[in-house]
Amino acid sequence: MYLTKEEERIYDGEFGWANQVCMKILVRLGELFGADRLIPISSAHVSGVSYKTLGDAPSEFLKALAESNAKAKVKATTNPHSIDRKHISARISEEVVQKQLAITKTFERMEFRNSLTCTPYYLEKPKLHAHMAWSESSAVVYANSVLNAWTNREGGPSALAAAITGKTPNYGIHKAEERKPKVLVTVNTKLKSETDFGALGIFLGEILEDKIPAIKGLESASKDDLKQLGAALASTGMVNMFHFYNEKISKEGLEKISIDKNDLAKVKQKLTMTSTKKPDLVFIGCPHCSLNEVKRVANLISDKKIRDDLEFWVCTSRHIKEKAEKYANKIEKCGGKIITDTCAVVTWTEKLGIRTMMTNSAKTAHYAPTLDNADVTLAPLEECIKTALKE
Ligand code: F3S
Q1: 343 CA distance to ligand 1 middle (Å)
Q2: Do 272-388 and 5-176 have the same topology in CATH?
Q3: Residue owning the nearest CA to atom 4 of ligand 1
């Protein structure tokens, strides 16, 4: 892989240990994937911020980087960590809270913006065709497919290294020719709710391997639906983007797949492990809610109250919470919790006594059984809210 003179000097350690180790991570990755060179990026987004998923050893590595004076060279944001200061911290051990805060502060020390959200694109929309290094898979698919900004799916370490060097290896979907669709997917059923879009993502992720699809049948999709589709697609597969099928896309040479109502029904059935009428938690906000979603939740609750025998969480970023203040206040007044900086997957639900969960997110329904040890019911927003409300 070609390196500029300056990159070589960084690689050789002239700019300190932190820069050297980051450069080495990127060069190794580039060599593995056949990159020809490094390219500048406009932003990086790192995952691996939650102490629950990170653990102790990587936290020490982060600390060592910060102590060696590593600083983000480009706009760099962070994924959710494992606590919400208002609703969760006081319910788990002080030791865990302190360990989490130490990680989060380490990022701050390295001049990352502690956005603590998986939807960094609501904070600042990336420019068209901007090269980036993002490592939250749902955000990667959304950025590539909906916003037409270009990023591979980075791992936590490579996104971190990219943030500190301001570069990423030029391979994968940083190259226009690698972004072309390989499969034409025809959806032969009307997608009626966000859970249908999520089920479609789970189904496609399982069968596509890394082949980029052009999907026919997304005409009625809202941006929030597409967010559900992308998050689910990335949770079961390696595809990092999809296209909306249009007449300009040649069908020639594309593998063809058709999907009908039954395929989606089977996925939804598989993602629903329990049919409890009273889950411990009703969770909305995976990926973190948009302003529109918070508004929808508030409107659906109307003037009713949340049941006393369950928790109702709406997870979003601080940024959206602020913008949606009126709706957020209304949800909290009715007994719901607006949770920021975390979500039901990366926080300590088990320690909070949550064993059963209802959610409108196929991604959460896919992960919560293993990461939260919880039984899940997947249901559209209206049904989730109906379950959460007092009669
Ligand atoms: Fe975001 Fe948590 Fe879902 S980090 S994408 S809300 S699993």
Answers
A1: 6
A2: yes
A3: 118
